[in-house]
Amino acid sequence: MLKWMIVEAMAVALVFGNQAGAARAEAGKDIVDTAVSAGSFNTLATALKAADLVDALKGPGPFTVFAPTDEAFAKLPKGALDNLLKNKEQLRAVLMLHVVSGNVKSGEVVKLTSARTLLGQSLSIDTSRGVRIGGANVTKTDIGCTNGVIHVIDTVLLPKNDIIETARNAGSFKTLLAAIEAAGLTDTLRSEGPFTVFAPTDDAFAALPKGALENLLKDKKKLASVLTYHVVPGKVMAKDVVKLKEAKTVQGQNVKIDASSGVKVDDARVIKPDVAAENGVIHVIDAVILPQ
To answer: What is the pTM of this model?
Structure first.
């Protein structure tokens, strides 16, 4: 047992050793310039530019970036990188999953069991055999920059398909996601849940009376009330929804459910049911429903 503990400690030390020389070598450069000059993060640099995140990571920060190498990006399934580069919102989500607020050096990383990223999701940290962040091995640490630090990883990390990311990937809920963020509900809908979300499309929000959405976005409390009226606790699949006459929402009031001709939730039609997420399910609706 003692022998294994010594070997384990040595493995961690090899990854998270004193790399002050590397830190000094990059002195005077921000995170983006450091990555570019390293020569092994060309794909990452391209992705940051495509996602319009270059200026952000040139900002004061500080930031801790778990940076996938070009080889890490090359391990993605065929076509995955090209698809990401064509979808700015998904690409931003993937990249933000690799960034943690603050200047978290290796000595602090190994004391953690998880780290919250700028995306809002947390990454697990495992030092039982070497050091792993999420599903990636940390291969080099403590590359110092003027606005933070880079730790190099060998795998691209991908977001969990929680309610937020599932809606983002669908591409038709930009207004809903903006409203959720404005109401301060993003973290809630990333949490364990589970949740059932009756999700209005962008077209549904566009059908609101003129000025209604703008007024909602200015009133955080009312906006939160409207949005939580679209959420039911638990994972209620379509086969169970059709058995109900009503369902109590997170907002507190009940929504009416009518399955006599298709499925309606209050006055909204369910146009796509059972969009699965890791922490619940989304049923797509064609209108915004409002509490009494």
So the answer is: 0.77
- At 271, which helix (H) or strand (E)? strand 268-277
Q: How far is residue 263's CA from residue 269's CA, in Å, rounded to a whole number? A: 6
Token couple for 112 = 């953690």
The one-character DSSP state at 49 is H
**Per residue in 212-256, pLDDT tens?**
999 999 999 999 999 999 999 999 999 999 999 999 999 999 999
- CATH class of the region 163-285: mainly beta
What class has domain 2-153?
A: mainly beta
How many whole angstroms separate alpha carbon 280 and alpha carbon 219?
Answer: 27
**Is the Cβ–Cβ distance between 144 and 182 less than 8 Å?**
no
Distance CA 238, CA 271 (A): 11
Integer CA distances (angstroms), 99 to 50, 194, 266, 277, in order = 17, 26, 41, 23
- Centre a 10 Å sphere on the Cβ of residue 54 and count the other Cβ atoms it contains: 16
- 23-46 in b/e burial notation, b at 16+ Cβ within 10 A? beebeebbbbbbbbebeebebbbe
pLDDT, tens digit, for every residue of 27-38? Answer: 589 999 999 999
